[in-house]
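Typical record was shown:
=====
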Amino acid sequence: MTVPHRANRPLAAAGLMVIAAAIIGFTDNFVQVIAGRQGLWQFHLTRSALALPMMALAAPVLGLRLRPTRWRGVIARSAVMSTSMVIYFGCLAFLSVAEVAAGLFTAPIFVLLISRIAFGQRFGLWRLFAVFLGFGGVVLVLGLGAGQVRLVSVAPIGAAVLYAISNIATREWCAGESAATLTGGFFAALGLWGALGLILAALVPHLVPAGADGFILRGWVAPDLPFLAVTAMQAAGSLIGVGLMVRAYQLAEASQVAVFEYLLLIASAIWGAVLWGQSFGAGAILGMAAIIGAGAIIALRARFTPAGEPATLVA
């Protein structure tokens, strides 16, 4: 059976990813405000409880289509992507943010591998070079040292594999769905994870460390004004940012778009410096340059791939 050709617009997808990175990088910087008192599961449940009604109210005004055309594809994608995020945040109880983030941002490499194995897409040396250049930039930005590798360190790689699958699924399983539909499915799934985490936290006795160290294990805590304000801002910002990311993955091949997710690290670092006075050294600056270079290679090479031809790049 012949699969109908879908327009490939990598530059438009890149522009959406830049905007999404700026928004998500800003809102994510405020999670530290609530991490010392509330917990991750309460955050996920509350954010979804705020985000989904926002979408429902905005849908008729903006003409958004929320109902899926293919339920199985949307449910499967939502399950895979939300599970990836649960593993990612769960690892923070055992590993540093640098270790977990470095693991998750190997996802573009898995996008390439899965696209090659499952869909027969061919990639040349330039795109492969861009992916590894971007990952090298992540290592520099995070300032990773040579530490002893533990078994639990492999867990973020599992999150990366699931995240890569969800990115491919956005285009391959859910090509006919609206960005609003996929965004709503993602938040609904995270809300279910939040409810499940709170139930388990209430039923299973466990010790909860004080302050931010207990963010992953903490159950329900009476919400205060800072928590509600930050979570509401997160809900609105995430709706817009995730929606833009979803649309980007619909406009271009996942292997082309995935590299631009490295921009989230740059945006987070910039907002951290602006909001909290955080600084980064020469290595981090070099890493950001490498990330930008990787994204530019992907966008420029994809731009000159003739329409209708497989995404094959020449060295």
